[in-house]
């Protein structure tokens, strides 16, 4: 039976979102979480697929701006809430939604689309590359010291109720937005996301706790975390589950991690989302007792290759011609000459000149924010060097001084 793909209507949201929840297992989100996503949904940027009266496909796109190397914020569709009913899977419904969505994103004039994937294998076929990664860490905190600089002793730490500290924490967070490529400019309403704390999602851990860090009377950092009480044979061995540590002063950052690793009756500290070059890894006395794993985080798609490549700066001078393959968005296909450096901006225009490097739009997405290097991708056979020297030149230029990072999901 033919299905109908169209923009979501206000009256359909509840049913539509329920079908999304079902595709993720069918456990309804807590009312406060559902309510927030109801407010954040951009209806005119959301799609539903209908089989008669039944909703069988969902997809949304938040109107984000993403920080890129050089500090600019680039308009990006934040692809989200993607699902297809299990009764209708593998018959092209996702492909239809991705087709319509990328055409829409192009029409909205947004050079990028970004997403976090439930499974990394889904989106490569639509031109997404893994543009940021994240580190997860599990610290044996009884065996690991946090070797904080002396300045950390001047930092004052205080417990504050999460809600009471929310505004202060948000202003610290806002000072960090844009310090790494991959961060999202804050849109109204999103400041509520880190405060969500549904009891059913705690898995036996405490309600969210907050400690703020002050230096010279000013709030310069905060940590939000849960403690999960555990004991074995009468010995307490609880786990600290870190949701977020943010600071604008290195001393405060170190003081907060020293605090988290020193809470009485706890033995493990876990954090699920850190930049891969997080300073924490240089603060700990024994990195081997910190189980660090790296995962994909934000997947990036260049919807308009020329605009996207012009929007960032390049670590070192670069002048290369790319031969770009993009079967799903053929308007990007062909040769582009990119010339730019760290300060003067960049130009990326169509050219008839011979190509120096051949790759697909997926590799450009992986390298765009400075995460994967073009050399690394060439090692996997995914970038071909056609002019000797072009690969090293472009690879260094595409780098970022700090690893790109997405601080929160969407
Ligand atoms: C940004 C986000 O929201 S991520 C969340 C994604 N949603 C989920 O994971 C919820 C549960 N899963 C689902 O809802 C669905 O299985 C989806 C959305 C992942 C796929 O929807 P479908 O309509 O079945 O995909 P569709 O039929 O268009 O598949 C297109 C191609 O992708 C492949 N594909 C689809 N899903 C997957 C997957 N999970 N892993 C690997 N390949 C996949 C298909 O095999 C097909 O390949 P082909 O073109 O070579 O034949």
Number of domains: 3
Q: Could you give a short account of the major beta sheet?
A: 7 strands, mixed
Indicate the proportion of strand residues. Answer: 25-35%
Low-confidence region ranges: none
| Quaternary form | single chain
H/I helix tally: 10
Topology (elements, then pairings):
Layout lengths: L3 E4 L5 H11 L7 H10 L6 E5 L2 E14 L5 E12 L8 H15 L4 E5 L12 E2 L2 E8 L15 E4 L2 H15 L32 E7 L2 E11 L2 E2 L2 E2 L1 E10 L2 H11 L5 E9 L5 H4 L6 E7 L1 E5 L2 H7 L6 E8 L8 E7 L5 E5 L6 E4 H8 L5 H6 L3 E3 L4 H8 L13
Parallel strand pairs: 4-5, 13-14, 17-20
Antiparallel strand pairs: 1-2, 2-3, 3-4, 5-16, 6-16, 7-14, 7-15, 8-9, 9-10, 10-13, 11-12, 17-18, 18-19, 20-21
The structure holds acetyl coenzyme *A.
The site of acetyl coenzyme *A has 22 residues, from strand 4 and helix 3.
Could you describe the 3D structure shown?
Belongs to the acetyltransferase Eis family. Residues 3-151 form the N-acetyltransferase domain. There is one protein chain. By secondary structure, this protein is α+β, with helices and mostly antiparallel strands. It has three domains: 4-134, Gcn5-related N-acetyltransferase (GNAT) (Aminopeptidase); 135-295, Gcn5-related N-acetyltransferase (GNAT) (Aminopeptidase, 3-Layer(aba) Sandwich), CATH 3.40.630; 305-397, Nonspecific Lipid-transfer Protein, Chain A, CATH 3.30.1050. Helices cover 23% and strands 33% of the residues. The chain contains ten helices and 21 strands. The protein has helices at 13-23, 31-40, 93-107, 162-176, 250-260, 280-283, 305-311, 361-368, 374-379, 390-397, and strands at 4-7, 47-51, 54-67, 73-84, 112-116, 129-130, 133-140, 156-159, 209-215, 218-228, 231-232, 235-236, 238-247, 266-274, 290-296, 298-302, 318-325, 334-340, 346-350, 357-360, 383-385. The strands form four sheets. A seven-stranded mixed beta sheet has the order 1-2-3-4-5-16-6, sandwiched between helices. Strands 8-9-10-13-14-7-15 form a seven-stranded mixed beta sheet, with helices on both faces. It has a five-stranded mixed beta sheet with strand order 19-18-17-20-21. β17 (318-325) and β18 (334-340) form a beta hairpin. The radius of gyration is 23 Å and the shape is globular. The model has no long low-confidence stretch (mean pLDDT 98). Residues 23-24, 79-84, 89-95, 115, 117-119, 121-122, 125 line the site of acetyl coenzyme *A (ACO).
């Amino acid at each position: 039976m033919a299905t109908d793909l169209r923009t979501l209507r206000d009256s359909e949201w509840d049913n539509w979102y329920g079908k999304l929840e079902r595709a993720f297992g069918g456990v309804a989100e807590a009312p406060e979480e559902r309510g927030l996503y109801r407010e954040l949904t951009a209806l005119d940027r959301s799609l539903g697929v209908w089989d008669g009266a039944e909703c069988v496909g969902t997809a949304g796109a938040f109107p984000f701006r993403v920080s890129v190397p050089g500090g600019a914020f680039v308009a990006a569709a934040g692809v989200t809430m993607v699902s297809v009913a299990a009764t209708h899977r593998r018959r092209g419904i996702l492909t239809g939604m991705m087709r319509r969505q990328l055409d829409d994103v192009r029409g909205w004039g947004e050079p990028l689309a970004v997403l976090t994937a439930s499974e990394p294998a889904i989106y490569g076929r639509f031109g997404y590359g893994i543009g940021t990664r994240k580190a997860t860490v599990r610290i044996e905190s009884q065996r690991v010291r946090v070797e904080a600089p002396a300045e950390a002793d001047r930092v004052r730490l205080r417990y504050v109720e999460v809600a009471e500290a929310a505004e202060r924490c948000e202003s610290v967070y806002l000072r960090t937005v844009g310090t790494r490529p991959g961060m999202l400019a804050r849109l109204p309403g999103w400041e509520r996301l880190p405060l969500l704390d549904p009891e059913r999602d705690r898995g036996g851990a405490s309600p969210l706790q907050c400690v703020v860090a002050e230096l010279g009377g000013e709030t310069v950092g905060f940590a939000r975390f849960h403690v999960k009480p555990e004991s074995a044979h009468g010995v307490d061995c609880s786990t600290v589950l870190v949701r977020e540590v943010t600071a604008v002063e290195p001393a405060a950052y170190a003081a907060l991690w020293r605090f988290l690793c020193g809470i009485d009756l706890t033995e493990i500290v876990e954090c699920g989302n850190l930049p891969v070059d997080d300073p924490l890894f240089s603060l700990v006395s024994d990195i081997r007792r910190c189980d660090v794993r790296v995962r994909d985080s934000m997947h990036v798609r260049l919807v308009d290759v020329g605009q996207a490549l012009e929007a960032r700066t390049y670590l070192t001078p670069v002048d290369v011609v790319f031969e770009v393959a993009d079967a799903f968005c053929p308007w990007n296909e062909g040769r582009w000459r990119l010339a730019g450096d760290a300060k003067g901006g960049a130009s990326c225009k169509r050219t008839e000149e011979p190509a120096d490097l051949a790759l697909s739009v997926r590799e450009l997405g992986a390298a765009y924010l400075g995460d994967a290097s073009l050399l690394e991708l060439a090692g996997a056979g995914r970038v071909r060097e056609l002019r000797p020297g072009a690969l090293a030149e472009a690879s260094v230029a595409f780098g970022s001084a700090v690893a790109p990072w997405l601080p929160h999901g969407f």
